[in-house]
């Protein structure tokens, strides 16, 4: 053994399977303390005066940590749960319990990386070994064909080169027991102790999302093996209603309850045992998108969070609060946008199609600073992932990695394509339920006679559109 007593620090790797930091910590230590620290910053306000994480997002996080604690306990170990400034907690703990090493995953976020760097300095001064492991992407950062600084600025090149030459590393063995885990026998921390009031999922949610490694695998088994939906993914992935139009893996991936490599090897097994087609390929394609945004963040770091984005494009953004709040509340009077925002607010989830539309509408139609949208998503999304969120927002805003100039989503033609009968909008905007078919999307464009006929004489309490919808051909 290299070390007498180590700290194994869980961050966005809340799993036992395929977890290099965990396994290295176990293998290199005579005994070890397992810990998760709720970062107090999640409760603090972001620049749009909202907590970084909503209670819904925190509920999912709590469930994931609690599930990990149960799994570790059932294998003879103890997971300490704490709250505070993670780097300070680790530093104090290492001193208090006389530890000589700390093992942790490497995080993508700039804030987290800065914290890692500070911690490394402090620990090294005290002769405590500190090592982090890159383990939340499909391709390992050391295996991709470029040094991070030379990463291509266009996704297609990134994907093609990696598909040609980068192998996905083997899965890391799952630990079978934790007999060397130090038991501090601390009081069993509850959600309320760390400031989380768990919320039940809305009955209207596409899925009753629950955090944890066990739930992640239950979802994968349901989607791949029981419902056999993977073979249809490419055709259904732009859906809006129901649980199985897409994988819904994102909240578990964001917290590392399951690794992209584990999903990849399950896709390979599905291709061998069931069918290999465009859909099975496409799920891996999307995981490569996820990787790409992670590496883009590594390359550009703080620049990704600037208004001018990685393109350093100076755009005059508005920060009109009134308009922004109407967008955020789903009160713009544009039904397709409002339905998606209301789904997000009530459930913490929104489809990829929805995200692209509401993001484009905020930045291209309303001219609002794209970062206000990204901060709002950071607060509200269960699956908030710093790289995927900021990378996608910058992309839609035209200051990211989109090689096409001026990509624009015409909301009515998108609605026509993806919600032609208006079922999705009817589900989320009950005040419009009497409006038939596609008319629900363009209620503001109907003449008075048509309008009265559509609403069947009932009074409708809905918003006047915030933009002139006549501009959209469909
Ligand atoms: C403005 C905007 C913000 C977004 N913010 C986030 C975010 O914070 N966290 C997040 O995980 N995804 C984000 N996405 C990407 C995407 O919308 C979600 O990953 C997807 O909708 C999650 O549903 P799913 O798991 O069913 O996806 P599936 O279609 O089943 O895809 C499988 C997995 O591939 C990955 N993936 C798919 N599309 C993308 C994409 N465009 N970018 C990166 N990864 C992708 C996800 O990990 C996803 O779980 C954002 C997209 C936009 C346009």
TrEMBL record:
Family: Belongs to the DNA photolyase class-1 family.
Annotated signal peptide: none
Coiled coil spans: none
Gene it is expressed from: cry
Protein name stated in the entry: Cryptochrome DASH
Pfam families, alphabetized: DNA_photolyase, FAD_binding_7
InterPro entries cross-referenced by the UniProt entry: Cry_DASH, Crypto/Photolyase_FAD-like_sf, Crypto/Photolyase_N_sf, Cryptochr/Photolyase_FAD-bd, Cryptochrome/DNA_photolyase_1, DNA_photolyase_N, Rossmann-like_a/b/a_fold
Organism field: Marivirga lumbricoides
Stated role: May have a photoreceptor function.
Flavoprotein recorded as keyword: yes
Cofactor binding note: Binds 1 5,10-methenyltetrahydrofolate (MTHF) per subunit. Binds 1 FAD per subunit.
Domain Photolyase/cryptochrome alpha/beta: from-to ranges: 4-138
Classification via PROSITE patterns: PHR_CRY_ALPHA_BETA
Keyword vocabulary terms for this entry: Chromophore, FAD, Flavoprotein
Cofactor: (6R)-5,10-methylene-5,6,7,8-tetrahydrofolate; FAD
């Amino acid at each position: 053994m290299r070390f007498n007593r180590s700290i194994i620090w869980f961050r966005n790797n809340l799993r036992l399977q395929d977890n290099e930091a965990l396994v290295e910590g176990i293998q290199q230590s005579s005994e070890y303390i397992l810990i998760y620290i709720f970062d107090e910053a999640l409760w603090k306000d972001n620049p749009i005066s909202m907590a970084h994480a909503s209670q819904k997002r925190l509920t999912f996080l709590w469930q994931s940590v609690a599930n990990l604690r149960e799994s570790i306990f059932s294998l003879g170990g103890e997971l300490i749960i704490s709250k505070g400034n993670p780097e300070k907690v680790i530093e104090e703990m290492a001193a208090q319990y006389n530890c000589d090493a700390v093992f942790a995953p490497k995080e993508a976020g700039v804030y987290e990386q800065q914290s890692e760097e500070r911690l490394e300095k402090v620990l090294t001064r005290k002769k405590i070994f500190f090592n982090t492991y890159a383990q939340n992407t499909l391709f390992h950062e050391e295996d991709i064909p470029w040094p991070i600084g030379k990463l291509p600025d266009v996704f297609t090149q990134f994907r093609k080169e990696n598909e040609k030459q980068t192998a996905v590393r083997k899965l890391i063995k799952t630990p079978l027991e934790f007999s060397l885990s130090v038991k501090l026998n601390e009081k069993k921390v509850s959600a309320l102790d760390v400031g989380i009031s768990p919320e039940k999922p809305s009955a209207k949610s596409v899925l009753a999302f629950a955090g944890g490694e066990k739930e992640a695998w239950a979802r994968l088994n349901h989607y791949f093996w029981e419902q056999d939906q993977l073979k249809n993914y490419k055709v259904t992935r732009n859906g809006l209603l129901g649980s199985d139009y897409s994988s819904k893996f994102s909240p578990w991936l964001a917290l590392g309850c399951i690794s992209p490599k584990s999903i990849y090897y399950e896709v390979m097994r599905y291709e061998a045992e069931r069918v290999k087609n465009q859909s099975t390929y496409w799920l891996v394609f999307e995981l490569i998108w996820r990787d790409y945004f992670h590496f883009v963040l590594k390359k550009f770091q703080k620049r990704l969070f600037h208004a001018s984005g990685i393109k350093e494009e100076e755009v005059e953004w508005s920060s009109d609060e009134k308009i922004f709040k109407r967008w955020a509340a789903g009160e713009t009077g544009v039904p397709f946008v409002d339905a998606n925002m209301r789904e997000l607010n009530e459930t913490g989830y929104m489809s990829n199609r929805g995200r692209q539309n509401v993001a484009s509408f905020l930045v291209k139609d309303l001219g609002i600073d794209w970062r206000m949208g990204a901060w709002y998503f950071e607060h509200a999304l269960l699956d908030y992932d710093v790289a995927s969120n900021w990378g996608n927002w910058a992309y839609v805003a035209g200051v990211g990695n989109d090689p096409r100039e001026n990509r624009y989503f015409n909301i009515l033609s998108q609605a026509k394509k993806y919600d032609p009968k208006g079922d999705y909008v009817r589900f989320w905007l009950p005040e419009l339920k009497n409006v038939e078919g596609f008319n629900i999307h363009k209620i503001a464009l109907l003449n008075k006679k048509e309008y009265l006929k559509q609403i069947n004489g009932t009074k409708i309490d809905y918003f006047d559109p915030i933009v002139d919808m006549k501009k959209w051909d469909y």
